[in-house]
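User: My collaborator sent over this chain with a note saying "see what the structure looks like." That's all I know about it. Can you take a look?
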Amino acid sequence: MNIAIALIIAVVVIAAIVAIVVAGKRRKETKLEARRVEARDSRDLAKATQLEADRATAEADERAARAKRESLAAEQQKMAAAAHQSNAQDLQAHADEIDPDVG
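Assistant: Without extra context I'll predict from the sequence alone. Here is the result:
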C-alpha cells in the first residue's frame, strides 16, 4: 500500500509539474501574442501618422507653390505698373514739349 501511495503522490507531483509547465508556456504565448498585437497596433498608428504627415507636407508644398506663383504675379504686375507709369510720364513730358502754352 505504501508503494501505491508513493506512486499516486509521484503521479500527482508529475501532473502538477506538467500543469505548471503547460501554464507557463500558455502564459508566455499569451504575452507574446499581446506583444504582437501591440506591435501591429503601433505599426498601424505609425502608418496613419506618416500618412497625415505626408498629407500635411503636400498641403504645405502646395501652399508654398501658390505663394510663389502669387509673388511672381505680383512682381510682374508691379513691373507692368511701373512701365505704365513711365509711359504715362513720357507721354506727359512729350505733351508738355509740344504744347505751345506750356512753358
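A starting point for your reply to your collaborator: The chain has a mean pLDDT of 95.
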